[in-house]
Amino acid sequence: MIVRTPEERAGIIEAGKRLGAVLEQLAAAAKPGVSTLELDALAEKLIKENSDNTSLKGYKPEGARRPYPATLCVSINDEVVHGIPSAERILKQGDIVGLDLVLDHQGYFVDSALTVAVGTISPKAHELIGVTQAALAAGIEMARPGNRIGDISHAIDSMAKDGGFAVVRLLGGHGVGHSVHEEPFIPNAGHPGTGTEILPGMVFAIEPIVNQGKASVILGPDGYTYRTRDGLLSAHFEHTVLVEEEQTLILTRRSSEK
Ligand code: MG
Predict the structure, then answer these.
(1) What residues have a C-beta under 5 A from ligand 1, the ion?
(2) How far apart are the CA of 175 and the centre of ligand 1, in A?
(3) pLDDT at position 63, please?
């Protein structure tokens, strides 16, 4: 994993502020009656009006048959990640919706996601969202110089398990900065003291994906949308962080976050 120069850090920090602001507005717009395509259009508008670029549209991940067709990933309820926006998918009261977005500001890429409650949700859904957020916080807490990637993975998995839930093992965090996905992969479960050593100047996205039931997921016929195999709920939170000597900065923090 690459240590960023001061100039790169400044660019990535600015990109993070911009993405946090866009996601804040998208979260506020996720109301009953809104289609996932409308959220996608809003994401694109907000990014472009700041002269930034959308990064996911046209991005072809390794192994994919076709490039991703939208700006935003929108994943409702049992959809785990990478849901493709559609005019036919209308948010309704009680849904939980994951919004995942990558933004490119002058060549600096940052990645962030959150899961939003649409209106009033069930106590179980509320609990799942809370535990996933806590898992992200626990992972970030371990992202400091001298620790290893496995310390982050272990903290995330432990928090999810303690909450009575299961992390998705197939998917996880990653380096970010000059493209959507960079080395290394950051698993959402692992052993403390293993993996790449964390150094000041590293930038990566940490993203717990937590299922209400079993960890198993299936990839849908569109080639992108993952769902839980058991049909139960899944939640996802993600931040891009910059590790510094004294502290780790959450670059994509939203204004409504504590
Ligand atoms: Mg990501």
Answers:
(1) 111, 205
(2) 9
(3) 84
- Measured in angstroms, how far is the CA atom of residue 60 from the centroid of ligand 1? 14
Residue 55 CA, ligand 1 centroid: distance in Å: 12
The boundaries of the domain holding residue 173 are 6-257
CA–CA distance, 79 with 81 (Å, rounded to integer): 6
Q: pLDDT tens, 194-229?
A: 999 999 999 999 999 999 999 999 999 999 999 999
Cα of 106 from ligand 1 centre, angstroms = 19
Q: How far is the CA of 50 from the centre of ligand 1 (A)?
A: 22
pLDDT in tens, 114-169: 999 999 999 999 999 999 999 999 999 999 999 999 999 999 999 999 999 999 99
Distance 187 CA to ligand 1 centre (A): 12
218 within a domain of the structure (yes/no): yes
Number of domain units in the chain? 1
pTM score, two decimals?
0.96
Domain assignment present for residue 122? The answer is: yes
197-222 core/surface letters (b: 16 or more CB in 10 A; e: else): ebeebbbbbbbbbbbbeebebeeeee
Q: What pLDDT digit, counting tens, does each position of 17-40 carry?
A: 999 999 999 999 999 999 999 999
The alpha carbon of 239 and the centre of ligand 1 are apart by a number of angstroms equal to: 8
Would residue 184 count as lying in a domain?
yes
Residue 47 included in any domain: yes
- 78 sits in the region (left: phi over 0; alpha: psi -120 to 50; else beta) called alpha
Residue 246: CATH number of its domain: 3.90.230.10
- What are the angstrom distances between the C-alpha of 33 and each of 29, 38, 155? 10, 10, 37
* DSSP secondary structure code for residue 35 in this structure: B
